[in-house]
């Protein structure tokens, strides 16, 4: 009796369920395009989006990168009322050390690899896209992707140094090994090889990219002209690994020009337009609390009349924080929409001088002095009048690099390359100058 | 075949119904329902057992009921009294009933299935329930969730900040998820009530997310605060899967079932009006540092001493704590409700108008709620309910919490010493704050940060009596509803602000957000009751459910404002964010309940659910349940003292979805130089992700003595959650910093004890008391990834750590005595235990209610103190109470620990509070010729607070309702205590 009644109810109930509990349609991501669709067969506009994404990605967390290497290289102090670690950890205050899981370590690292990932997606997309019809266009896009990858990996290397860096990161579930663990040059060789691969592809890239680049690459927006940026970066990499002949060779293929505009080069553009980013290294004059001020020795070590001191502007009031103080604001960038260089002619002239000095014999040294004088004269200084031994010229070259490339992330690497980190100023007893960042916590 | 069966199924009840239309003999029963003292019990319900007919007693306790046939059993019930069953016949048709008080509420009916009720005495779970009187009877409540404090065992409630308009984290029986929805499912009269929160995007100005933490810290309120507590008749809380399994894949964090008030349907009408006025004040003042010239020199350098001396000489040293948090915010609640109706039509209408000003100038909360609940009895064979609720609220929430621009009121306040002069001149021009990027008085006076909500909730329940005989009843219950609201956020930072003008910002920011949420749910169930002649009841129910949710968040941000314009187009730059969420869930459930003479009650059931939120959208996930309650006192005579002894055990499973979007690997938009691009998102999606699955086993006993005047409930539970969805850190060289995985298990266990006492019970004086104690312990029992830190701001300042074998809420940090990972455990956010002591005393016309709440232990990460130390403004900077060696001042000592140990910022967050206290006087009704009842009352919330925590309030969450990483404080909106005077009348 009971069973009969129950079954009477359950049969219709189960039918009801069958009707109502029908299938659910998969809901596509309502908010974003998917990676799968783009890598399988991208349209030209999707390829363009990836390229723009790469350019945009190169800017992500760049502010923390410059703040970090600038503070450790004792060019600036980053004062922050809301985060004391800029003046404790970065400067090694007391027993503070660089943390392997804090934003200054992890954010720039992750952002560079995120751009690398976007470049890898672009490489895969152009390989599979039927919208790209010529091999030239395909090569051009790959040359672009590989060049940017190399640049991003180089920034990772600056911070990671002989921790080594991962070069092969195409498969997120099966990452390649750390290259150059304990050998700071090995990763550089891999980066140089990547640049060479990009250069070869650009050379076979035809007359035009199958996409357009932002104003940051104005003048370098064809495969042939972009290859000059590739070579400029190669010159930097070769110099970092002390391959002076290769550096000079690369310079020859770059936009290096002693008579050219020192600012000529490739840039990260910024603007106040909606959705665009503001220059993260710009603060208004006389900002308090959150400020970026100049380490005082930049002023005191300068030669009289050096116009490059305009990169440090005297404040109305001294800015203090955490036992540090400065009278000068960092004013490398005029406005919050000023571009930040990726690589520019002034650096290339200095790389030329450096390579010549390192070659060592007299003729080379005089080439070097000539190049240094170009830089000095541009800064309102007279020709170099100091000693011309190789050692003296290295000192002069490093000084010119310090003032010419101030705030652009070079000082710390230069001091490290020449084993001079111990000459950087220590502002508080117990502060440390770090050689490298720790490997991010989640990498192992 | 199918169609034929369905036809049969539909026709059968129709025929049965038709047969009922035939007139049968009927008779009238009359009588009076009274208490032991002979006082009438108005509103007592009189129902025919097994039929859907009933009535309720009038104001004197008299009733009149038409009964079909020649005999029937009627059940007379009244809240707080034992239900009485009486045989009536046409000859024996005058039934006067003297009701016996039911101290333990055993005859109270609580919800046990998706569509069915059970007497509390027969329940196998420790369901916590709260009546209207417990909820709002003592004092005025700002929000429903806030009103639950201390009234339920096994519950941990944290108010995220003191900002007007709510924002509360509610957790039942510990943590049940690490990344999924951590908040319970709210169901109001059968309608799923959305409890999302949407950020205002003030993050653009504060930049709080991005540096130390990627989580937003905009301090939004969560939307359950829209519910008016005054409309609520009762709340039932299903704390874990053993009780909530039939709610399936959304029930892992518990379910809160809310039933609103309904019409009386007895021919009488009751009107209630009340007005409360009051004020609130900062709960705890920290004070300001007592400066002198040497301290100024130490903190700000020798150059600052002159400024300080000048300010002292001019009498311009200020107490900015009083200036910023010193408002006595006026509070007002106006309330009108009417309920009444006839047997044919019941209605309840409630209107509440609430206005609360905050302790910070220009902050406050206004809410208007209108509710209409109708019970039309159109057909004899059907009961219908229609519920409508409209809410309009507006809250001005100030601008607090963490930032990275030193512009929030909180951060700029702690960075400013007391000799700064921030006051505007006669023309209203504010000076720049030389000590911080923001003049917080200017910010307070000029900004807007507002949430506005328009919400409509509509629902209906139809109960169709398909078939009724002496032993059988078959009902079809169809229930559905829609919950839709629009939340508009408006944040305006005018360009004359210190941090917006002169290149310090973006020359003004105007942010407008519109979040639209639309949820619907519908369910249909068949319920079959069968009572054997031997009084064994079988109740079978089965049904199907569907829930949809569609949310659309649009946030438009304009900068470079033109003059004082705030319209989004009066700007040089505009950017828009849109985030959508779509979800469809479908499921079925079936349950069988066997009640053997009220001695043994056995229930078994299953729910199957599928959802678009899972990787495989059409895979059914099953959630079974089973429970057994044994009423020993019904089986055998336990003597006259022992009035109740029940053993109970319950098992159940439930699920929880991962965050929306966990199945996708998105490309995010990015703009550079006018071009739009796509950049890979930082999280790798997982197309195989499944729900988190919870299994809970609960056992306990209930013991009552002396007619249950003393009653003890004990419950022990083990709640395990498998396949927790983790946002696993990935090597960021992959391009992704994280990925979604079902990668961990955790286990909560704990116990809950409640002791209900009625020590004094006379006509003049009654004292009810409830002491409850609860404790939960949690442990991660599986972790597929290496242990990792989560939440807060990194190990230097204290962070959470997910580690196998440890509590998921352990707080760790760097320390000289660290372990191999460089970390030391400083404590746990989970309290050691909690105790609530709730009392209701009535003497003649006076009523006194008070509720003490003790939270023992539990730690917070207090970074307000860190920031005020850095700027030398901590009130206790010069005290010497924290340095173990006793030599350094507190501020200097804590700062010396920065980078050495995080211990200085991990603090005990225990407290003892007088949560609620209320004294009420019922004016003698003879003054009003017995036509009205008028009462006066004084009451308060959080009037007494004892804690050693060094900041405003240990109850705080910088990160809102996140599962992990509440209990972090960064310069919040301080919380308040409130005082009320209430006058109310009923006619």
Description:
The complex is a heterodimer of chains A (444) and B (987). Chain A has 444 residues and is mainly α. Chain A has helices at residues 2-20, 35-40, 44-59, 62-72, 103-128, 135-160, 184-203, 223-240, 244-253, 297-300, 345-359, 362-378, 390-404, 411-417; strands spanning 76-79, 165-166, 178-179, 265-268, 291-294, 312-321, 324-330, 340-344. In chain A, strands 1-5 form a two-stranded antiparallel ribbon. In chain A, strand 6 (312-321) and strand 7 form a beta hairpin. Chain A is globular and about 75 Å long. The mean pLDDT of chain A is 92. Chain B has two domains: 25-101, Immunoglobulin-like; 129-286 and 325-986, TonB-dependent receptor, beta-barrel domain (Maltoporin, Chain A, Beta Barrel), CATH 2.40.170.20. Helix content of chain B is 9%, strand content 48%. In chain B, strand 13 (185-188) and strand 14 form a beta hairpin. Chain B is mainly beta and 987 residues long.
Brief overview, please?
The complex is a heterodimer of chains A (444) and B (987). Chain A is mainly α and 444 residues long.
Spans of at least 5 consecutive residues with low confidence of chain B:
1-23
Per CATH, which architecture of the largest domain in chain B? Beta Barrel
Question: What profile does the largest beta sheet of chain A have?
Answer: 2 strands, antiparallel
> Overall 3D geometry of chain A?
globular
Oligomer: heterodimer
- How would you sum up the major sheet of chain B? 22 strands, antiparallel, barrel
Helical residue percent band of chain B? under 10%
Mean pLDDT of chain B: 87
CATH fold label of the largest domain in chain B: Maltoporin, Chain A
Whole-number total of structural domains of chain B = 2
- Quick one: CATH superfamily of the largest domain in chain B? TonB-dependent receptor, beta-barrel domain
